[in-house]
Amino acid sequence: MRPCLLSAENWKITGRWNTTSEMYKLRDRKKSEFLLGPTHEEEVTSLVSSLVSSFKSLPLRVYQIGKKYRDELRPRGGLLRAKEFVMKDMYSFDTSASKALETSHEYHIISPIGEDTILKCSNCTYTANVEKAVGTPSVKPGNIKIPSWINLKSELPPIDIESEGVLYRSTSSNGFKYSLVLIPKGRTINSVKLEKNLSLENPQVLLEYDNKVECDIYIDSSLGLFEGYRSIDLVEIKEGDGCSSCKNGILGTERAIEVGHTFYLGTKYSSSLKATFKDTTQKNVLFEMGCYGIGVSRLVSAIIEASHDRHGMIWPTPIAPYKVCVVPVYDKCNREMNKDMEKILSQLVYNMNPHSIHDVALDDRDVSFGFKMKDAQLMGYPYVIVAGQAFLEKGVLEIHERKGGNIREVSDIDELHSFFKNL
């Protein structure tokens, strides 16, 4: 695992030392600069570069689980957005961009307290973040409306949909570059799509200009296809638009919590840090990288938010820290019986673990039965096994299911093992 306290050296080389605002920066007594790691691309890239020199060692996946630190402007939701959190992050190193691009995905949990907006189709399984969603915007027949001072390179295509033009000015090697984007009237251009598809450097919207300008023309795909013009998906999809996947459904919105993200890094870090390997021709080639992050502490909070009731949390069985809690009913007036109960239950828990049930907790605290059951509900154990007088006399146990509230009796250990094995 890479350290939490990082040197500023590699971060200055990649340019992130001065461009990332969420860092905790500090100096030691020798005035050397450090930061508390918000992420570890620089450190992992440097590590792999020192260890891997040939294509024969690729593809390579390096992961860790550890703490991250970010100076969040608005911490919220307990563990959902915190200044210190636990993350599982993995970094991939490949020989080509095509292989590095094979995985790019976001993972969300639907929740009303989420910060992301998800668009879901009413007819099929299509789901996407609003930043990446593709759909069929609703349009109206009409004419094109553009600023009168724009001198176009060529005539506009015969668009019979009510639309408007947005002019962008971006920097280029020859000064300024102008781009006219045509979209349905009243719609918004998606900044993520604009950056991805047009590769404009520092784009600015021009509302007025005192000179006529020449510009490239880009037409949003919802306006149609026109020969000689580039048609691109640029509009931000919203609730009520049609689904482009099944063509029949309508897209609706839901709030969601992002708990994981995988995306392509390319050679952003390997080029800055001169991280290369030798390919089949013994030529030095930059690593093609990807990044995969799962917010462990955020995931815990999201799970509790999505799975709880008025009594407390309800852990899903596959990820519960303890799947079963054994709660004994002691007789305050019979200490000998209580000792026998403890011996039997200890043996019961011991026997359960090697078989079908793992992660079994025994609540042997000296508190009332009601107190233990309340705590068991609050902690969200998927199953609670109650062992009372009937267990000592007849070997009968009660299994309480936390999620459904169902109670089942089993009369021997084999039946108990069978119950949990068949879940």
TrEMBL record:
Catalysed reactions listed for this entry: tRNA(Pro) + L-proline + ATP = L-prolyl-tRNA(Pro) + AMP + diphosphate
One example GO MF annotation: ATP binding
Protein name: proline--tRNA ligase
EC number: 6.1.1.15
Keywords: Aminoacyl-tRNA synthetase, ATP-binding, Ligase, Nucleotide-binding, Protein biosynthesis
GO cellular component: mitochondrion
Ranges in a coiled coil: none
Annotated organism of origin: Boothiomyces macroporosus
Domain spans labelled Aminoacyl-transfer RNA synthetases class-II family profile: 56-316
Similarity comment: family membership: Belongs to the class-II aminoacyl-tRNA synthetase family.
Pfam families: HGTP_anticodon, tRNA-synt_2b
PANTHER family named among the record's database cross-references: MITOCHONDRIAL RIBOSOME PROTEIN L39/PROLYL-TRNA LIGASE FAMILY MEMBER (PTHR42753), PROLINE--TRNA LIGASE (PTHR42753:SF2)
GO biological process, one term: prolyl-tRNA aminoacylation
